[in-house]
Amino acid sequence: IVVEPPIELARNVAQLEAVRRGIERFAHALSCHITEDPRQWLWMHKRWKYTPSRRILVLSDGKAGHLKQSLAVVEVLRDAHPSVTHTVVEVRYRHRLARALALFWSWWMPRRLGAAACLAWTLTDDAARALLTRHADLIVSCGSSLAPANVLWASENLAKSVVIMNPAPVPLRRFHLVIAPRHDSLRRRANVIQTAGAITCIREEELAEAKSRLPAHPNFRQGRAAFDQRREQLEQSQMI
To answer: Rg of the Cα trace of the chain?
Structure first.
């Protein structure tokens, strides 16, 4: 145990400046001890959580349509923040009872209470191993089956949670942002955004590439031939 003199804040300067100097003295003293013996340094909470880089964790239920919508949100965020990185983790529950337990715990639990333990018990071994070793600043999921895992792991990571489509029966207030189509008829809330339909992200270059490939597709050629034939029949009938 090393006891150092107390760090006193200067009284002849403004309060913010005094606090800044005090923090600098504390950080210098701490860094000296860490340099002397790094093995003695132990920090229990997520000290390095707030960094310029941002990590997004995308939860997947194995449905391609749901994953595509989640990745569309990621692409929009990456356009605004190029340093964003993302990882996709597939979530599988052990059985229906385990999923019901995760649902109950995400609906009722106080903040962060037992979130990791609940996921470790309710998810399959592979899914739990993949999820519980991934830390994120933002968690995105699509579909109600993933909503409990989203809430629980976002709480454990102190991360923001985004859910696409109606997450019922998990309450809307459990999420930082809910993106749902109008036909879900969700009540108006500050954290709810309504869309005309499913989310998609198609870039101009992708549309141009698809347009160039379309004429060579067999179904397109057959459909175009049938259309031309029908048009000729209509023109002939009008002439008669």
So the answer is: 27
